Amino acid sequence: MSMAVGKKGVRADLNVTPMIDILLVLLIIFMVMTPLMMMQHRVDVPKRSEVDMPQEVNQDQVVLTYTKDGFLFLNQTRVERAELFKQLSDRFKDKREKTIFLNFDPESNYGEVVRIIDTTRNAGLEKLAIVTQKPGEKFQVPGQAAVTP
Protein backbone atom coordinates (compact mmCIF):
# COMPACT_ATOMS: atom_id res chain seq x y z
CA MET A 1 0.00 0.00 0.00
CA SER A 2 1.40 3.34 -0.86
CA MET A 3 0.45 6.82 0.20
CA ALA A 4 0.90 9.99 -1.73
CA VAL A 5 0.97 13.37 -0.08
CA GLY A 6 0.17 16.26 -2.35
CA LYS A 7 -2.03 19.26 -2.84
CA LYS A 8 -5.27 17.47 -2.30
CA GLY A 9 -4.29 15.66 0.87
CA VAL A 10 -3.44 12.07 1.69
CA ARG A 11 -4.32 9.51 -0.96
CA ALA A 12 -4.09 5.75 -0.37
CA ASP A 13 -3.45 3.42 -3.36
CA LEU A 14 -3.81 -0.31 -3.10
CA ASN A 15 -1.01 -2.27 -4.80
CA VAL A 16 -2.82 -5.25 -6.37
CA THR A 17 0.14 -6.77 -8.22
CA PRO A 18 1.06 -9.33 -5.50
CA MET A 19 -2.58 -10.31 -5.14
CA ILE A 20 -2.91 -10.86 -8.92
CA ASP A 21 0.28 -12.97 -8.88
CA ILE A 22 -1.18 -15.22 -6.17
CA LEU A 23 -4.49 -15.54 -8.02
CA LEU A 24 -2.72 -16.51 -11.25
CA VAL A 25 -0.68 -19.18 -9.43
CA LEU A 26 -3.87 -20.58 -7.87
CA LEU A 27 -5.57 -20.55 -11.27
CA ILE A 28 -2.71 -22.52 -12.82
CA ILE A 29 -2.76 -25.04 -9.95
CA PHE A 30 -6.51 -25.62 -10.36
CA MET A 31 -6.18 -25.86 -14.16
CA VAL A 32 -3.56 -28.60 -13.75
CA MET A 33 -5.29 -30.49 -10.91
CA THR A 34 -8.86 -30.55 -12.28
CA PRO A 35 -8.18 -32.97 -15.18
CA LEU A 36 -6.21 -35.22 -12.82
CA MET A 37 -9.11 -35.39 -10.38
CA MET A 38 -11.56 -36.19 -13.18
CA MET A 39 -9.63 -39.30 -14.24
CA GLN A 40 -11.04 -42.65 -13.18
CA HIS A 41 -8.95 -44.62 -10.76
CA ARG A 42 -7.83 -48.07 -11.75
CA VAL A 43 -8.59 -50.86 -9.32
CA ASP A 44 -6.64 -54.10 -9.45
CA VAL A 45 -9.02 -56.91 -8.54
CA PRO A 46 -7.42 -60.25 -7.69
CA LYS A 47 -7.75 -62.97 -10.31
CA ARG A 48 -10.29 -65.71 -9.69
CA SER A 49 -8.65 -68.93 -8.61
CA GLU A 50 -9.64 -72.04 -10.51
CA VAL A 51 -10.23 -74.28 -7.49
CA ASP A 52 -13.05 -76.79 -7.65
CA MET A 53 -15.49 -76.84 -4.78
CA PRO A 54 -15.37 -80.21 -3.04
CA GLN A 55 -18.49 -82.28 -3.67
CA GLU A 56 -18.44 -83.68 -0.18
CA VAL A 57 -18.37 -81.15 2.64
CA ASN A 58 -16.91 -82.38 5.89
CA GLN A 59 -18.59 -81.55 9.20
CA ASP A 60 -16.03 -78.89 10.13
CA GLN A 61 -16.82 -76.82 7.05
CA VAL A 62 -20.11 -74.96 6.91
CA VAL A 63 -21.50 -73.96 3.53
CA LEU A 64 -24.53 -71.70 3.41
CA THR A 65 -26.28 -71.93 0.05
CA TYR A 66 -29.03 -69.62 -1.19
CA THR A 67 -30.94 -70.47 -4.36
CA LYS A 68 -32.78 -68.17 -6.74
CA ASP A 69 -36.04 -69.72 -5.52
CA GLY A 70 -35.32 -68.44 -2.00
CA PHE A 71 -34.30 -71.73 -0.40
CA LEU A 72 -31.49 -71.82 2.17
CA PHE A 73 -29.27 -74.83 2.75
CA LEU A 74 -26.82 -75.19 5.64
CA ASN A 75 -24.46 -77.79 4.18
CA GLN A 76 -27.03 -80.20 2.68
CA THR A 77 -29.81 -79.47 5.19
CA ARG A 78 -32.58 -77.10 4.20
CA VAL A 79 -33.10 -74.25 6.70
CA GLU A 80 -35.90 -71.73 6.97
CA ARG A 81 -34.90 -68.07 6.75
CA ALA A 82 -36.38 -67.31 10.20
CA GLU A 83 -34.27 -70.05 11.82
CA LEU A 84 -30.98 -69.09 10.16
CA PHE A 85 -29.66 -66.87 12.97
CA LYS A 86 -30.39 -69.49 15.65
CA GLN A 87 -28.91 -72.32 13.57
CA LEU A 88 -25.70 -70.38 12.90
CA SER A 89 -25.37 -69.21 16.50
CA ASP A 90 -25.82 -72.76 17.83
CA ARG A 91 -23.43 -74.29 15.33
CA PHE A 92 -20.63 -71.76 15.87
CA LYS A 93 -20.93 -70.94 19.58
CA ASP A 94 -18.22 -73.42 20.66
CA LYS A 95 -16.03 -73.23 17.55
CA ARG A 96 -12.76 -71.36 17.56
CA GLU A 97 -12.65 -70.94 13.77
CA LYS A 98 -15.76 -68.98 12.81
CA THR A 99 -15.61 -69.28 9.02
CA ILE A 100 -18.56 -69.91 6.72
CA PHE A 101 -18.58 -70.49 2.97
CA LEU A 102 -21.33 -68.58 1.16
CA ASN A 103 -22.67 -70.14 -2.02
CA PHE A 104 -25.20 -67.87 -3.72
CA ASP A 105 -27.06 -68.51 -6.95
CA PRO A 106 -26.02 -65.78 -9.42
CA GLU A 107 -29.68 -65.27 -10.35
CA SER A 108 -30.83 -64.82 -6.73
CA ASN A 109 -32.17 -61.58 -5.25
CA TYR A 110 -29.23 -59.32 -4.37
CA GLY A 111 -31.07 -57.60 -1.51
CA GLU A 112 -31.85 -60.92 0.13
CA VAL A 113 -28.22 -62.01 -0.28
CA VAL A 114 -27.09 -58.88 1.59
CA ARG A 115 -29.60 -59.61 4.37
CA ILE A 116 -28.26 -63.16 4.66
CA ILE A 117 -24.70 -61.84 4.89
CA ASP A 118 -25.84 -59.44 7.63
CA THR A 119 -27.46 -62.34 9.48
CA THR A 120 -24.23 -64.36 9.35
CA ARG A 121 -22.26 -61.40 10.69
CA ASN A 122 -24.80 -60.82 13.49
CA ALA A 123 -24.58 -64.51 14.42
CA GLY A 124 -20.92 -63.96 15.32
CA LEU A 125 -19.18 -65.31 12.24
CA GLU A 126 -15.88 -63.56 11.64
CA LYS A 127 -14.78 -64.83 8.24
CA LEU A 128 -17.01 -65.07 5.19
CA ALA A 129 -15.72 -66.92 2.13
CA ILE A 130 -17.69 -66.63 -1.11
CA VAL A 131 -17.82 -69.66 -3.40
CA THR A 132 -17.53 -68.76 -7.10
CA GLN A 133 -18.30 -70.67 -10.27
CA LYS A 134 -16.31 -71.21 -13.42
CA PRO A 135 -17.77 -69.59 -16.54
CA GLY A 136 -20.45 -71.87 -18.00
CA GLU A 137 -20.72 -73.96 -14.83
CA LYS A 138 -24.21 -74.48 -13.42
CA PHE A 139 -25.09 -73.50 -9.87
CA GLN A 140 -25.45 -76.39 -7.44
CA VAL A 141 -26.05 -77.09 -3.79
CA PRO A 142 -23.05 -78.93 -2.25
CA GLY A 143 -23.64 -82.65 -2.23
CA GLN A 144 -26.49 -82.47 -4.75
CA ALA A 145 -26.37 -82.73 -8.54
CA ALA A 146 -28.83 -79.87 -9.10
CA VAL A 147 -30.93 -77.49 -7.07
CA THR A 148 -33.97 -79.52 -6.02
CA PRO A 149 -36.02 -77.82 -3.29
Summarize this structure briefly.
This protein is an alpha/beta fold. 30% of the residues lie in helices and 20% in strands.
Describe this structure in words.
This protein is an alpha/beta fold and 149 residues long. It has 2 domains: 2-38, no CATH class; 63-130, 2-Layer Sandwich (Nucleotidyltransferase, domain 5), CATH 3.30.420.270. The protein is built from 3 helices and 7 strands; from the N terminus they run ββαβββαβαβ. The strands form 2 sheets. It has a 5-stranded mixed beta sheet, with helices on one face. A two-stranded antiparallel sheet has the order 1-2. The longest helix is centred in the N-terminal third of the chain and has 22 residues, at 17-38. The radius of gyration is 32 Å and the shape is elongated. The relative contact order is 0.15. The model has no long low-confidence stretch (mean pLDDT 79).
